[in-house]
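We emphasize that the prediction below concerns an isolated chain of 353 residues; any contacts that depend on oligomerization or on bound cofactors are therefore not represented. The input was used exactly as deposited, without trimming of termini.
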Amino acid sequence: MGDLTVAALCFQRIGVNMSRPAAEIPPDQPQFSRPVRVLKSLIKCGAIGFVLLLVMLYFLQRHLIYHPKRGTVLVEEFSSHVGPVYDVSITATDGVTLHGWLSLAKASPLPTDQVTPPTAEFFVERPQPFVLYFQGNAGNRSRRGMQVAMLNDLGCDVLIVDYRGYGDNDGAPSEKGLAADAKSICLAVQERYQVPVSRMVLFGESLGGGVATGLCHDLCAAGTPPAGLIIRASFSSLGDVASYHYPWLPVRWLLTDRYPSVERLPQITSAVLVLHGDADEVIPFSQGEQLFAAAPAQSASGIAKQFIRLKGTGHNDIMYVAGDQVRAGLSPFFEKVSNTLTAREKTAVSQNN
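Result of the prediction step, given as a token string:
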């Protein structure tokens, strides 16, 4: 028997067909081929699902950011805390009508007509600060009665106007839209009541802190800084707070509305007061500290920036848990601002004489 015949018999015993070309011999199959295929399929499905989630978040993000309470706004809930409330309507630059209320300081003489809003002549003789109130992302103006009443008690006239898409206002909220609303409100106060920007204090709570900071930044850049900026329980930027709640998502890439307050504060020359609860579960206390750190040490008028730590206070319970702490922080701030306004008016009178 030849050598090849012996070899053929040996290979047949171990299951190899010598008559079959070498190229047709099937390669060894990996033992875990099926689990690997399943794993690859799961990874592929997970990637597709993640991409779909990002797409959904991108197109629905404003529904997640803004939570307006729409419909008729009842003044009763608001006026139970404050004095006379006057209905105010302001037309934004793009034609959207914004509805709000004017609430006057209680310690000052009030108009005899408590239905018709006072005219410019009424405000000419009033040296106290005029507060523009910018609310948070939820509800509408009717829920801010307690804070507005406190501002009235401290001697401030307050104008609170709902954003577009909130309360009885048409439109849909966005950063660009809210910025336009804030600018229109500020301009209306100047034209309608002859109140200069130098007498205005911008008060922003939560999301409103981003709106107020943006307006203040633009006014300072134009050379007309407001008397003060108060930021209560607000974020360093919308991207920062979104990343805090969703660290596993690339939210900074997805956001179209950003409100970069921490980037704007260094250019602000108004007096700055920051208040933040150290138990805030929505916006971390550290972001309030970042806002304070970003602000200049003092305003152009010489008022040092201030930070009030609201002890044991969350995000939505501030006026119930820390009302006294808020008042204790606001009172000296407004006193300093009022003194600056009085000194400025005296200087203006002496120069005119």
